[in-house]
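Incident review: delayed structure delivery

Summary: a single-chain prediction request sat in the queue longer than the usual turnaround. Root cause was a stuck worker, restarted by the on-call engineer. No data loss occurred. The affected request and its eventual output are reproduced below so the record is complete for anyone auditing the incident later.

Affected input:
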Amino acid sequence: MGKIDGNTGRGIMRTESKILTRLLAFCLLFFFAVPLHAQKAQKVRITYASIGGQTLYLWIAQKEGLFRKHGLEAEVIYVPGSSAAVMALLAGDVQAAILGGPSIISANRKQVETVVVASFVSRLVMNLYGAKEITSLPQLKGKRIGITRFGTTSDFAARYALRKANLAPETDVALVQIGDQATRVAALRKSVVQATLVQPPVTLLMEREGFSKLVDMTEEKLAYPLSTLVVSQSFLRKSPETAQAMIAALAEAIFLLTENKEAGLRHLAEMMRLDMKRSDHREAVEESYRAYTAAMERIPYLAPEGVKTLVQQLSSQDSGWANLPFERLGVDMRLVQELERAGFFRKLTATKERGGR
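Output delivered after worker restart:
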């Protein structure tokens, strides 16, 4: 090969430099033009402890790709029992949990371990049914109400209902720890108890069998954290952006399922493993959809009233809860506030008005 003189060599170097500069600029332009979530999705594991309408929004966020839309690669894991879900959260096995009732702050008695960062269903959705011969609350005096166990949501709802009739739990009416909903319904049928609490769609079964609806807790509109997003204190401190992305994805899922009934019904049927071609199955799905979507929050704040209700419930078992200041309870709505200030929830509505998602 022939020699390259100095001027020619410098010219080649300048040309190569320009090419490299343009290539670098193109790469940077491409990097910033691609949405952040498309560059690298953040992996998270989210657990939930109940299957049905109150956790449907989590299912939809996963099935409709809303987690990925908000920059997350989410693995959704069912763990039966809220206490097991809390243990997985504290151990770092999962980054978030969908929980309700006392379990959401139960680990915070001595110090803040878990934090509620959003509340998507903030009302009780269940009914108190009595035996066929019992048609009013006062008739429960001297009788037995079946609950899951002391300290659970069914226990709280039973006590709340009894207070409406000036009946004292344990004194006027016995609260019997029986177990899950199916076991409680069986106990009512066999007259082991004279009342119990059930959630949709089992409410339809109770109506068909002629049991008396004594209290519709949903109509009471009692502020109560039934389905919330909970993370560990350490995770929130290290990864607030990831926690906020989860809130955004779940809030968008609620918007989707409440605005698109057929999609909501389809996903709920899949989640509950029901066949929409069967009229009884479709009726059960529609009842669950109706009851839970009516109680869902478009902007997922946990109101102070809901926290107060929860503290009252916990205080009935442990008086120390009543003396804890609010900041020690593990409730932090700042990420929801930031999303609201940024116009995120308003944009969801605006998107609907433009005719798209």
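Verification: The first strand starts at residue 42 and ends at 48.
Action items: add queue-age alerting; document worker restart procedure.
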